[in-house]
Amino acid sequence: MANGEKSLRIGIAGLGTVGGGTLRTLRENAELLTRRTGCRLVVTAVSARDPGRKRDLDLGGLRWHEDARALAEDPEVDLVCELIGGSDGIALELVRACLRRGRPVVTANKAMLAHHGTELARLAESTGAPLGWEAAVAGGIPIIKSLRQGLAANRIVSVSGILNGTCNFILTTMRETGREFADVLAEAQALGYAEADPSFDVDGIDAAHKLTLLASLAFGGRPRFDAVHIEGIRHVSAMDIAFAGQLGYRIKLLGVARMTAAGLEQRVHPCMVPAEAPIAQVEGVFNGVVVEGDRVGSVVHEGRGAGAGPTASAVVADIVDIARGLRLPVFGVPASGLADHPIAPMTAHRGCYYIRLMVVDQPGVLADISAVLRDHNVSIESLIQRGRNPGQAVPIVLTSHDALEADMRGALQRIGALASVLEPPRMIRIERP
Ligand SMILES: NC(=O)c1ccc[n+]([C@@H]2O[C@H](COP(=O)([O-])OP(=O)(O)OC[C@H]3O[C@@H](n4cnc5c(N)ncnc54)[C@H](O)[C@@H]3O)[C@@H](O)[C@H]2O)c1
Ligand SMILES: N[C@@H](CCO)C(=O)O
Ligand code: NA
């Protein structure tokens, strides 16, 4: 607060989807926010890359910084919102500079926190500067507050979620319309959901950034992005979406973190989830996170995970916390106490699997495939082979009982090498969150 007057002066770095939404929310809900915090939340300074760009925002009377890092030094700023993005570069330099001098920071930047979370948490703790990051995971869903505060009594068993709105929008639209992947991606980009580099969305990287942070908070460990098993949705085909429907499943890109006997399992990949499960009902750009606690049981969170309004909702909530004087450890425990959990390799994962093979329609093919599965301890739960096309390619779909990933991979390698199997096998894990 400046000179004892009841105001908190905010500097915003980055005036894109989230920065613009934040400025608007602070202005349009100003009176309400003042009543809730007891002080005026007033934007005094901004920085964006292109001062000449036409924006639908009134920037009159605001201090303009060519270099966002100047916000860390601006004497008319008490709190900085870092809404530029990118794991390194200006965003990281700005946040470091603010925390070093004890200036509060609110950020939506999951990439930066997934890569530099431990360092930034230590820095924040060393100067006592709050670092808010509710907007970084699942946009408007208050999942960070839920884990850090509401569920603080629980030993967390698992966290599973739809953490990328772009992928969920694409998968939902593909299922509903039968449209192509690339066509739907362009629409998600136009709607402001996608990352600057949309491969971050569709290759699962953005979801992995968010999972890294949720796992850190849930299990009190250092954020370990490098230890997440990541697969994206580029290879999910219309045929697999249709078979999932026939089997009573929907395909979702899930992030799952849980503590197993082999260590912390962190994985992001397409999953088949039962169509009636709460997470399967989370559609379009919505995100959903299911937390399993040892006391509370299962808690389901759902809401908008991307876009200007929902993300600004989370950014401003963090500003409100800081204005109210709330100070909480960045990852739920003091930074010096963050554990170094052993990491479970993906080959140690156990679960059920969907396998689709394109095979030559001829006698003996199924016998060969089931022999390989038997040799690798994989037990078949169900099998679909519909239609006939003698001598030509037909799909065979199998689902397995509980199996070890290492066994499944071994089996698929041998099955893929059979002369009667015409394309690389497609495998999608079945999950029941
Ligand atoms: N869009 C969403 O729905 C959403 C949701 C949650 C989190 N996020 C995160 O929020 C952050 C911002 O995302 P966005 O969607 O608003 O991106 P955006 O591209 O719309 O906005 C980023 C802004 O930063 C500005 N910028 C770039 N380099 C700069 C520099 N050197 N100095 C000052 N400004 C600079 C750009 O000009 C742009 O206006 C990212 O970390 C993103 O991952 C976005
Ligand atoms: N690109 C992200 C934005 C929200 O973090 C998504 O689609 O979910
Ligand atoms: Na959130």
Q: Explain this structure to me?
A:
With 433 residues, the chain is α/β, with parallel strands linked by helices. It folds into three domains: 7-136, NAD(P)-binding Rossmann-like Domain (Rossmann fold, 3-Layer(aba) Sandwich); 143-303 and 338-346, Dihydrodipicolinate Reductase, domain 2, CATH 3.30.360; 349-430, Alpha-Beta Plaits (2-Layer Sandwich), CATH 3.30.70. It has 13 helices and 17 strands. It has helices at residues 17-28, 30-37, 89-100, 110-127, 143-150, 165-177, 181-190, 199-202, 205-219, 238-247, 308-323, 365-375, 405-416; strands at residues 7-13, 40-47, 63-64, 79-82, 105-107, 131-132, 156-162, 229-230, 249-260, 263-274, 286-293, 297-304, 350-360, 380-384, 393-400, 403-404, 426-430. The strands form two sheets. Strands 7, 8, 9, 10, 11, 12, 13, 14, 15, 16 and 17 form an eleven-stranded mixed β-sheet that branches. Strands 3-2-1-4-5-6 form a six-stranded parallel β-sheet, sandwiched between helices. A hairpin with an 8-residue loop joins strand 14 (380-384) and strand 15 (393-400). Helix 1 (17-28) packs across helix 11 (308-323) and helix 6 packs across helix 7 (181-190). The model has no long low-confidence stretch (mean pLDDT 95). L-homoserine is lined by residues 139, 164-166, 193-195, 201, 206, 305-306. Pfam families: ACT, Homoserine_dh, NAD_binding_3. Pathway: Amino-acid biosynthesis; L-methionine biosynthesis via de novo pathway; L-homoserine from L-aspartate: step 3/3; Amino-acid biosynthesis; L-threonine biosynthesis; L-threonine from L-aspartate: step 3/5. Belongs to the homoserine dehydrogenase family. Keywords: Amino-acid biosynthesis, Methionine biosynthesis, NADP, Oxidoreductase, Threonine biosynthesis.
